[in-house]
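Chain A, query sequence.
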Amino acid sequence: MDVQTAFLTMLILLIIGEVISTATKAFVPSMFISAVLFVLGFWAYFPKDILQVGGIAANLPTFLVMMMVVHLGTMLDIKELIEQWKTVVITLAGMLGILVVILTLGTVVLDKTTAAIAAPPLTGGFVAAMMMQSVAPTEQLAILAMAVYVLQGFIGYPLTSICLKAEGRKLLKDYRSGNFTVAKAAAQSNTAAADDTSAFIFPQIPAKYKSDFTYLFTMVILTVMSGYLDTLSHGYISKFVWALILGVFGTAFGFIEKNTLVRSRSMGFIYTVIMMFVFSQLNTVTPDTLVQLLKDFAVLIVLATIGIAVFSIPVGKLLGMSLPMSFALGLGSLAGGFPASYTLSVEAAKVLSSSEEEYQVLEEHMLPKTLVAGFVSATSGSVFV
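Chain A, predicted structure.
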């Protein structure tokens, strides 16, 4: 293969995954389809180093992932987390349930290293999966780290959908009987106000000088700083964690703008390269490896689901949330955060509502909670884990 053919081949497999995921309303995760196609490609005719053949240097994806984590940090709204504190607590309880069960029963059923490698991806994060992939002691465990993330949607999506629909039916019953009004629903949805610049301590770049280059400049500065802080902390605090922290506080203090990768028009290309890197790591998968991975995953996903239920549902009840909503928020980890959190909430609202007003009531009740749960677990919490 030449450079352009290798890059095009990988891109086509990513597109096929997206198309099938869209056609099935995200029931079949795009990452699963793309992963299967890459594995089959490596078994058939792909060169093992297709990523490098496609012009992507081996050390570039790690740098791009650090930029992506900074970007995720810029999207984390501290005020919204405070307003949705009950959602945050329930989501953290679900994550704790995963860790407790996987790192206790999981070490007995499987082994300590397998449990440790699998636990962070099970808390919902793609970045967490990549982090564990980079430190896995064997190739099989490196593949397991990403396989857990790729496959968990098959359990997380339908379970979350069932819970959200159960919550929606209960809410509609109250709404139709007059016990839940649009005003009450709107009160629960604290729409983010315009950006508050009062806490900014950095001078702002004049609008006429803002460009793709300046947006990337602020992001790369924070990315470089996170690498230095990783060195200064002797690796005890990961550069990815530093990247997330710098993204959050850099935005709060006005050094970097929210959603920077999108503003710089770089998001699509960077995400594409990262996805190509992830799937290129499957070049060592054999049929025997695949069978073992599926066995390990089956054990891990059952234990993780039990852990979420045992921890998130009681905490949710204590905080006044229903059983279905509490479980749905805990399952935000297995659903992988955004965009699944958005898709599942909107789909449940559309399916259950019989009018635009009912749809708005359901969406305003469920969507803010599921989005925050996704940010807490997949976007940030899993990185710390």
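The chain has 21 helices and no strands. The first helix runs from residue 3 to 23.
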